[in-house]
Design goal:
Layout (H helix, E strand, L loop, with lengths): L2 E2 L6 E2 L16 E4 L2 E4 L1 H15 L4 H10 L12 H15 L1
Antiparallel strand pairs: 1-2, 3-4
Helix pairs in contact: 1-3, 2-3
Length: 96
């Protein structure tokens, strides 16, 4: 199926429709040959975050738990509630 450019009305070549990512991958994921793939080690932490949230823990309590277990985010010194919340929000969006 061809994809049309809504501005020009022309078909977009199929090689331009293939997704290639740049920048930093979200926590729990990595780039492999320009494609987003699961980072197994980080995804275990993501699963832990979701499990703690399902058990009723607040984002602040989850951050404290991760910091207490010396589980670090990729680019920060420690977890905070905003980082935990962004993972919960992203994963719940991906689930739907």
């Amino acid at each position: 199926m061809a994809i049309r450019n809504f501005v020009t009305g022309k078909n977009v070549p199929s090689d331009r429709t293939k997704c290639r990512y740049s920048g930093n991958a979200p926590f729990g994921y990595a780039f492999l040959d320009g494609q987003l793939v699961l980072d197994v080690k980080e995804h275990l932490i993501v699963r832990k975050i979701l499990k703690l949230r399902q058990s009723g823990r607040s984002t602040h309590a989850i951050a404290d738990e991760l910091n207490g277990q010396n589980l670090r985010p990729r680019f920060a010194k420690k977890w905070d509630r905003r980082g935990v919340y962004s993972i919960i929000k992203r994963e719940s969006k991906n689930k739907n």
